[in-house]
């Protein structure tokens, strides 16, 4: 401890050994919140010796050790002649006051007035009672130091302090933030809550705007209920404050420089948000209720799944709003929204998140019940997926469909407790207090922009009707709905409040209601801030209406390909590579110089280089995407001396497209959904997700089913996302063999996506380039290889890359006499090379092998051309490694039948049907593989 501080400490009248209990209590208060003690105490505690020489970030020593430390210093002081100080000279109650303040900061939310229905019965928190801390009625008129409590000056009368604490922390707002470890964040929140006692001083114009939002929310629902009785609309009634909340968030965001807001939400209140926030014309919504629809291609979707885009005027400028389309798997839209936001931020070159803000709106049961929420929180601060924080709103109905809140919905106190995993502040707010709602909305935007972290608003409300309007909620929640029937609406409560305080007259309130109803009758936009949409995002016009067309120009001059090959093979001498990686790059130098044929990893990387040189963006994520799960890519090189990373693909040209290759969080659903969202907002470049093993796509099946395969059909949303799914039977068991090809093929219709099984380096090169060069933007699903990555026959020449194009069908490559061929075998993937090697070994000349590289859309014309010289053949076989009930056999055989000659027969060669994707025993695997090869070749 510094000598000057030591001297001050020893000479202080209240810092002697006789008062160790007082000192320890002060130290406890300091450990909870350094700002809760006065500056002189902070100087003392800040200069305590470090624990075992470590930093102050490490938890402090046990209190007994601290106490002994103070006693030793006090003894030293007495030995030097310092006067002894007695207990009566110390006001120990000052510490108790500081503890009372901290108790409200920690636990005030547990006794806050949050439930509009007052049926949420909570135990009294004893720590919030002054008596718990030994403070009695005699102390109420005494002045106490308020520490860091930011209201009323350095000292306050205890009576006034208690009232201020109750107003701030136990009123309509329950603030949970003391779980945050960062002191600056906690102090920032305190400085926003405590000076104003958790409220804002709103003007008449502000209050009128809030009431207008409630009028709109209630008026919309009542209008729909009267016009379309019994129709499902997932009414917002009870949670009406969501509308003014959203308006305040957008206004605040616009003031802070936000240019775009992307919103994801489930069903409840969606129609209300569409009309009253985004400005969808009521007449269009009414037509949808009446069963009308526009003449568009596709299946369409129900009203409460629809998205929308518009511009919203704020004093800080127009803000572009985009409401994401979403399916009934409610929370899965969250990572989709984050991906869309990240794409927009990347395009704007904004790394702070300020220019684009995500808002996700949740149900109370869904946010705590669906694991995708945890996954999305987990990725929120990671390198590849951060978006500068999100605002998460919970429309907390206090019931899940028919499931009781307290007993069956969750195991935690709040539905929002999941957010504590990322130390997000949580602001619970009573939805019947719209001014508190507006205050929290503004606070949330400011926090998100200040700290670039997630923030949660728990809008505690109720659901006036059942889960949907066809339900009868009193059948399962009789007491709750008996209260709801008697409870006035949020609009009436607030209107009466404004009339009582003479802010508005009753005639003004009535006129506002009538004006809004008249606007609905008119059918035009009812959002006065709505503005005609200008170009806020990328131009999609080159891609709209683009159909399947392989006539694009894919060729590159060979000199350019060779130049790129040299660039991606160069590694600075100072960057020491691991020995196996060094061997890979030595081989790549040989490939670049023409000494060796190209392997898979080199051709794939060349495809990326050519795209980047055209100034297009590439984004690749996956659990091992930097090196590739099977040690083939090595696009990110780690220095063995200092662990720095070098990416040759970032160093191919002075001006090139950006590339990000990131090993993702250990998640499939959230990451794939994020990349889908990214690709729907960024069509220009190449967005890829790579599964560690193809089987793991199982965990993201909802994304595949409800977004990738059907998003265009349902919502008209184009998406060029590429999925690389390692697939191939190598004897590695049921969960490391199959990417479940059959599932993708079952989802194929209406030319909704591409399913490819490339078999050579040249094919993967052209396939990836085609995904960018061709203007069509539809998902590409790739059954990518494992053993073919280093297979001696799976190689290509530089000329094949420069001069070729992707071949949907590859015909027979050996010089067979077509007239002698009496069997043609169709196949895809690595089994082709096993068939080829075995045929050559056996010297067979009567079996031709045809590779189907694109299974969907099936290339009928190219298949017919490949089979032209075999029109005499009657024996055709489809050979696959997968069990008969899996793979391509059941889903694609009608395509094979359509291209074989009339009168010919088609048979199956492969494993027998199986419940599991593959066997787990290597010997059995080898036996099955041998059998299917023999069957295909008639051996």
From TrEMBL:
<dbReference type="GO" id="GO:0005829">
    <property type="term" value="C:cytosol"/>
</dbReference>
<dbReference type="InterPro" id="IPR005475">
    <property type="entry name" value="Transketolase-like_Pyr-bd"/>
</dbReference>
<protein>
    <recommendedName>
        <fullName>2-oxoglutarate dehydrogenase E1 component</fullName>
        <ecNumber>1.2.4.2</ecNumber>
    </recommendedName>
</protein>
<comment type="similarity">
    <text>Belongs to the alpha-ketoglutarate dehydrogenase family.</text>
</comment>
<dbReference type="InterPro" id="IPR011603">
    <property type="entry name" value="2oxoglutarate_DH_E1"/>
</dbReference>
<dbReference type="Pfam" id="PF16078">
    <property type="entry name" value="2-oxogl_dehyd_N"/>
</dbReference>
<dbReference type="GO" id="GO:0045252">
    <property type="term" value="C:oxoglutarate dehydrogenase complex"/>
</dbReference>
<dbReference type="GO" id="GO:0004591">
    <property type="term" value="F:oxoglutarate dehydrogenase (succinyl-transferring) activity"/>
</dbReference>
<dbReference type="Pfam" id="PF02779">
    <property type="entry name" value="Transket_pyr"/>
</dbReference>
<dbReference type="Pfam" id="PF00676">
    <property type="entry name" value="E1_dh"/>
</dbReference>
<feature type="domain" description="Transketolase-like pyrimidine-binding">
    <location>
        <begin position="598"/>
        <end position="791"/>
    </location>
</feature>
<dbReference type="InterPro" id="IPR032106">
    <property type="entry name" value="2-oxogl_dehyd_N"/>
</dbReference>
<dbReference type="InterPro" id="IPR031717">
    <property type="entry name" value="ODO-1/KGD_C"/>
</dbReference>
<dbReference type="GO" id="GO:0030976">
    <property type="term" value="F:thiamine pyrophosphate binding"/>
</dbReference>
<keyword id="KW-0560">Oxidoreductase</keyword>
<dbReference type="InterPro" id="IPR042179">
    <property type="entry name" value="KGD_C_sf"/>
</dbReference>
<dbReference type="Pfam" id="PF16870">
    <property type="entry name" value="OxoGdeHyase_C"/>
</dbReference>
<dbReference type="GO" id="GO:0006099">
    <property type="term" value="P:tricarboxylic acid cycle"/>
</dbReference>
<dbReference type="InterPro" id="IPR029061">
    <property type="entry name" value="THDP-binding"/>
</dbReference>
<keyword id="KW-0786">Thiamine pyrophosphate</keyword>
<dbReference type="InterPro" id="IPR001017">
    <property type="entry name" value="DH_E1"/>
</dbReference>
<comment type="function">
    <text>E1 component of the 2-oxoglutarate dehydrogenase (OGDH) complex which catalyzes the decarboxylation of 2-oxoglutarate, the first step in the conversion of 2-oxoglutarate to succinyl-CoA and CO(2).</text>
</comment>
